[in-house]
Design brief:
The complex is a heterodimer. By secondary structure, chain A is an alpha+beta fold. Chain A is 29% helix and 28% strand. Chain A has eleven helices and 18 strands. In chain A, strand 13 and strand 14 form a beta hairpin. In chain A, helix 1 runs antiparallel to helix 5. The longest helix of chain A is centred in the middle third of the chain and has 15 residues. Chain A is globular and about 60 Å long. The N and C termini of chain A lie far apart (50 Å). By secondary structure, chain B is α/β, with parallel strands linked by helices. Chain B has two domains: 87 residues, Alpha-Beta Plaits (2-Layer Sandwich), CATH 3.30.70.20; 361 residues, Aldolase class I (TIM Barrel, Alpha-Beta Barrel), CATH 3.20.20. Chain B contains 15 helices and 21 strands. Chain B has an eight-stranded parallel β-sheet. In chain B, helix 8 crosses helix 10. Chain B is globular, with a radius of gyration of 24 Å. The chains are: A alpha+beta, B alpha/beta. Chains A and B meet through helix 6 and helix 10 of A and loops of B.
Chain lengths: 364, 499
Amino acid sequence: MLKREGQVRIPSGCAISAVTDTLGKRFSGTDIIDSIALMHDRSNGLGGGFAAYGIYPEFKDLYAFHIFYDDNDARVKTEEFLFKHYDVEYFEQIPTRKISSIGKAPLIWRYFGAVPISKMKKNDYDDDEYTAKCVIRINNEITGSYVFSSGKNMGAFKAVGYPEDVGEYYMLDEYKAHTWTAHGRFPTNTPGWWGGAHPFTLLDWSIVHNGEISSYDANRRFVEQFGYHCNLQTDTEVITYLFDLLVRRQGLKLDMAASVLAAPEWTVIDSMSEKDKELYTALRTVYSSCLINGPFSILVGSKHGLLALNDRLKLRSLITAKKDSKIYFASEESAIRVICPEPEEIKAVEGGVPIFIPFAEVNG
Amino acid sequence: MNYIVPEFEIERNPNKCISCGACVRQCSYEVHYFDDDGKTVLADDSKCVACHRCAAVCPTRAIKIKKYDMAYKEHFNWTPTTQKEINLQAATGGVLLSGMSNNKPYPIYWDKILLNASQVTNPSIDPLREPMEIRTFLGKKPEKLEFDEDGGLKTKIPPQIQLETPIMFSAMSFGSISFNAQKSLAMAAKELGTLFNTGEGGLHPKLEEFKDNAVVQVASGRFGVHKQYLESGRFIEIKIGQGAKPGIGGHLPGEKVTVEVSNARMIPVGSDAISPAPHHDIYSIEDLRQLIWSLKEATCYKKPVAVKIAAVHNCSAIVSGVARAGADIIVMDGFRGGTGAAPTRIRDNVGIPIELALAAVDQRLRDESIRSCVSLVAAGSFRNSADIVKAIALGADAVYVASAPLIAMGCHMCQQCHSGKCNWGIATQRPDLVKRLNPEIMYKRVVNLINAWNHEIKEMLGGMGLNSIDSLRGNRLMLRGIGLSEKELEILGISHAGE
């Protein structure tokens, strides 16, 4: 029997795409679906997904949990846990459309909740840490239950299928977000588990990734020292944890974290000013095991903004374009031009040089 | 009557021999001699150690060294070697001594581990076309970095050692090896951007110019240790144990303690230099902690302090303790590590393979979330660059090599280092033998060797789709076992080939 994601490490090729509005204007998921649909051949129908920022303005201060349940039993157990650990203000089944190409679906629910003040009095960590711990507990301890989105005013939507079908299934044309990312997957194995589709998320982090990193086990064994469990054994999962560790837990700025993951080469560092040399040498030596190696192109969403990063040798394609207040990213130029035929500017993202688009105050 | 059958036999081709006497003059073991006629060259086979010096210097290639062909009544248990050793002890009442390293056929795990390479789903990287980084840093790393408002670095980084290759030369004292041999290593280390290790022999004044490439060792005899010595090295290594002889000290016979050796070690000429088995101020982990911090204090916290232990059964717990005691670097020496002299029984029976020790220790330190606080250096027989790549993937930051550079300088593994008669000028203090080793020539051979290994490491890294050694460290997914049991795979933390 084929092993499920997490029981085995499955390499995969992919397509990624993103659109963000620098003024924070919200727009529907139609564009992002059209963009990722164009790269149909870069996926093989075994995983597609989206992350959307700014979609839940009415619950913007609450954690939004999107959860897959294998069965009703798992739901009952999880809800018992959730209602005990959160003041849940609203919950419902996530609305979907019937799509013939999307196979058997798990139960898909969402919950909006706040951390009760009574809980926080007992703990010496903050709401995010509390929530991260709760998510890890549900995913590890409740059989048949998987939290696939847990940030505020954002959400991930994913399934086994082609990404354009997944977008239609989740009715993303009816949502409005200021930032959308998308992923189409080409795994070289066929586990067919919805949790294994991308994006991978933790709190407000969401990552879509195209590539296959060769540093995986060095990265995994490093982050696992800090209490993370790489249960899915995917690149995206370990990269998310690296960002979470460096930025949320250790307080590095996002661009600093990017230059840990795609570190400048030693020859470059050697020719820097003394001050920069000291800084980058420290980053590379202290976080040497966070260096990501091998081909990758990632789009990282978070409450800070949208970050695009390519491996330092530029072994994967990633294109960016700009038009009016919108900035686009995609694995292929055509996937941008299909939704933005005449960009003001279009260029390849340089290897190892992060592009960061901070989120504006959300408008409209 | 001598019961001992010679191990080797000299075969001299009379048609080729021109009776030049080169072999007679060159053999420190006095195997070759002129017959009474002053012309015919004869040989006393029983003294031959198969170091090949005579064969190498013979201008007409008249000499061959062969196994001495003596039939024994076959017995699986009582082999000729076993009988020979008993006879040696019966004749002398002494402890059997050997040089170099464990030569029993225990498993060599390096040969049962296979490396990965990229195919299709991610590209391999060509080191001739892309940067390929093998720069390595040793020293304690803080758990995290902190920055001030302007993004400037606030965290003070403990002293780090920058190496341009993950390969260093392990401890061999002046005394156990010759000045010329040590100088060759020092020169090579300087050119390669790496370090050599003084061992427990002090730093010869003439090697002061190489102090930026030296590791200074503090061992149980404390020979040659003084403030200036400590300040000379890039880091200080407290030697608790050695892979070739865990649990025992060292012994440099008085004959090897020449004026120069005596000066470097600060002991009288001709006196035996005996390092005790334990440090007599370290009977526990708390004591080790005191020595580590005393050495840091003595050097104003500018030098990392390393602790070297032999790989023994309980090494995971020991290393965890040593890390918590404040060591910045921990060196583990496997049971195939070399030595200038060790009791044969200890060399061949005590300790465990570095592969298993390294894997267990790296995992233990990770389980305790303290792996990043300390650098791990593996020692105890790296024969080639593939061994080194495997060690780093198991979790080592760097490795120590010694036997390989000695071979590059002429060593033929005759395992007689303890005799002080090394015909190649390596493990000897006899001036006539020492001068046979020319550092200007030999250091280049050592540089060549390590450069060749560096190239090979880069090729293997590129093949795995890595362009920095940082991404290889602890990356056990790059390894697969072949022909190993479940238990062995579990300890190594790797899957079997085909999985």
